[in-house]
Amino acid sequence: MPPKKRRVKKRKNKRHIIFVLFLVVVCIFLFFEESGKDNTRNFLPGIFKAGPKAKHIPSKKAPSGGLLKVSIVMDDLGPNKSKAETVLAIKAPLTLSILPHETYSVWIAEEGHRLGHDIIAHVPMEAITPHKLGKGALQTWMTDSEITDTLSGDIRSIPHISGISNHMGSAFTKDERAMRAFFSELKKYRLFFLDSVTISESKGYRLAKEEGLAALRRDVFLDNKDDLHEIEVQWKRLLKISREKGYAIALAHPRKKTLEFLQKKLENNKEVTVVPITELITD
Length: 283
Hints:
Blueprint: H1 3-42, E1 68-77, H2 81-89, E2 95-98, H3 105-114, E3 119-125, H4 144-156, E4 161-168, H5 176-189, E5 192-195, H6 204-210, E6 215-217, E7 220-221, H7 228-245, E8 248-252, H8 256-267, E9 272-274
Parallel strand pairs: 1-2, 1-8, 1-9, 2-3, 3-4, 4-5, 5-6, 7-8
Helix pairs in contact: 4-5
């Protein structure tokens, strides 16, 4: 073959090889791009974690005239599995308020969500009287960034949450600077705030509203005293408030007497319709 023709053939072969390599590179690029999109769609951080479809626990339907509407929030869940199992066995849409970073926090949130309960984080906050608060506690001496970083860790430690309430916090909820830092982080996750009102001077509910967040506040501590008679007194107070306001929110704890009271009271209940806490949010 003449030299000129050999050179032409070599150039054609070279162009063909380059074209094939180009196609291979394009295919690889498109494959990884689509793979990356799929991974992005499938990644969900802790708060929005997908799980088994929740079984809805329906509120009891009101007869003609209507039952009184109450929401019962079970606080301090997380350290004890057997108490949580007793709570979950109660046939009512109780709201589960779970402490962050505890041994059974994730398990309770996952199981509660599966059964159709509302899940909220019960974040420890500084009290006026010193208390052992546990992991993830917020303190008034923290900087704004320390508050937001700690809160972010609390939020991400519990799956399926729709809101946050304060555990203790008689000092923290009075501190406007600390609470505004707290709410700045809450906004990022679009969570509502339930003010436990552990002190009458709490600024939580008011500041949450000012910051444009959905907010609620408790009406009754059902078992501030671990005594069946006192629990009954608070229950009647809860009903009175619901009758006047249209609904009422009770905070309770997974104590033996409290759980026995609720099991008995709600078993053949004809007084109230228990609703998830999220049903009370109107804005």
